[in-house]
Amino acid sequence: MEETPRHPLAVARMARGLTQDALAAKAGAGRRGLRSGTDRARLRKWERGVEHSEEAQLYIAEALDLPARTVRSDDWPGWIPQTMTGVVPLGPFSFSSVPALREALRTAMERRTFLTISGSALTVLAAQWADSDASPLTRARDGKLIGDEFVALLEDTSRHLAALPTEQRQHTAALLDAHLSTVTDLLEHCRYTPAVGLRLHTLAASLAQTVAWHRFDLGHHITARQYWVAGLHSAHAAADHDMGAGVLGDLAYQAAWRDDHATAAAILTRALTRARHPAARSLLQLRLARTLAAQGEQRPALRAIAAAEHHLSDARTQRPAWCAWMSDADLAVDTGQALLDLGDTTRAHQLITEGERLLPAARDKTRGVFLAYRASSYLTAKQPAAAAAAAAESLLLAQRIGAPRCVTLVHDLLPRFQPYRQEQGVPELLELAAA
To answer: What DSSP state is assigned to residue 361?
Structure first.
């Protein structure tokens, strides 16, 4: 028998450890002179879908420790966050993908900056993913039948949008958001065959992953995490373990970017338990090497680098789309970054320079990141003129193609240039960055 998801109010209430009576009391309906919400019977009706006034919804938000701006009375119960942690739990049932997608879309639309997703919540999510399998795909019992042709159209246009050069991709955010919203609506409201359902979940995972990277590049970390979490749910529903591992790898990358290397290492360790494709394992091992090196764990980092090299040499030409870009250039640069953290500056600089040279011309955003890495390695080697040249090239490239994360990388290097203000190229770099 197909299990029915609980009402969002019940989910939120239980996540906070509240009974129906406790929520009614905490909402304070009685002390405000309201009749609604004062007993279990009324709350039971609410949790079965009965709508109620905007005023009562405000009291519920207060009882759930949510700010009043969260409430959108015309979207009851859609405005209620599903968990206290911000992460929809990953269970054995594929229906969890739609709530996770809805949570990501609402977070982006309403800018729910009051939500946080802790490293421990992500680690628990990774453990759930590693230890569970989705049941056969569920689907809406009612609604219009969705056919192959429309799904193929969504797949083709989504693939084309995601493959555009970075300079053009900066204009596609709204289109990708609309595609993901459409796919979510189809999953929730339409009828489809198991084969079409599998394609829709796979497409949702791919779109959520792409949108997450867009948000991450803009520095919208809370929203990016929600989209990656949604992508993990969708990949899990589609039983695509490699893609699920890849999404976890992205969450780990973000954690490492924010200097939470303990969380990054824990997530990557879980991801590696189920990743099978050599390209996927190479990428995950390389990211693990980076985060281990940042923590000064030399031997484990070097073992991870060796594993990344081995898996990349075994990777076939046909790879999962989300890691099709993985190449010798990426291996060289990220290995160089790991060695830089471990103190092997000479070899690190050689690898970073070599990786940048190997990078295909189409990957401009990655080139901007690599140039910033090269500038950092030059600064470590006390070569400020060369560092200024690489940093200026990175900044100009990032500004041209619309890559704010690259801009941030360069700006983060600027304090290290201060002792060299009189060196060749440094004043020009500082002026460019200030413009």
So the answer is: T
